[in-house]
Each structure stands twice: as structure tokens, then as C-alpha cells.
Amino acid sequence: MSAKNKLTLSVQYADPRLQESITRPMIRKWIQAALFAPAELTIRFVDAAEGQALNREYRGKDYATNVLTFAYNEGEEELPDDAPTQADIILCTDVLEQEAAEQKKTVEEHTAHLIVHGVLHAQGYDHMDDEEATEMEGIETDILATLGYADPYAD
Asked: Is 117 annotated to bind ligand?
């Protein structure tokens, strides 16, 4: 592992349903593929109730969403160049499983995509306008292809 991709990782299964099928080594591999700098990340799997509570409290949206990224040094101007990206990435198992079924993807494929998406958010990528969305989707598609997964945005 290169110094640029140094990763300190915590994985929490508050909702244990995916603990056997989505393993820490898989998660680490997906994150490493999406890292452009050192990072200290927590990946937390939650149920719909916790997902909804977090989304309501921090985004003002009263529903569970698939992934929430809390980037702790986002926008900091005084950070040293080698400061790690610090973030919590929350995945809601209920929404993740429902979306995978609706999109005719495996839970593994969809989880890989959402983790890559969250890691990019943690590093400052966003999709607030069409240009940003196109850039972020292209990076996600390229990363997932290197991991052996299909384009998540293909019909």
C-alpha cells in the first residue's frame, strides 16, 4: 500500500444483516480503489430507523437514504497536505437491499458502488450540478470497472 493511500478503517455492523456477505476485506479493497489520499474512515451499516434519524437530524430529510457521508475535514483550510481525509460513511441496509433488487443488481455490486460513492464524497467530490455529477459518475464507473463491476449508471 502506498503512503498516498494509507487507510485506517473501522467497520461497524449496527445492523448485522450484511456482516457475513459484505466483509471487511471487501470493503477495504473498494475503499482503496477510490482513495486518492490517506484516510481515516468508518463504514457503518444501519437499519432504516437509524438511517432515517441521521438523515432527518443532519440533512433535514425525514426518510432513510442509501448512503450518508460525514466528512469531518471538508472545507478546512489550515490542514497540512498529508492530513488524512476523515469521514464516517453510513449505509442503510434496508434501502441498499431494496435498491439492489429494483435495479436488478446484487447487494455486493450495489454496496461496492455506494462505498465508492461515499469515499469520493469524503474526498470532496459532489454532484450538485450536472457537470459535477457527470465527473463524479465517470470516476465511479472507472473505479468500479477496475474492481470488475459493471457501470452502475448503465440502463
From this structure: yes
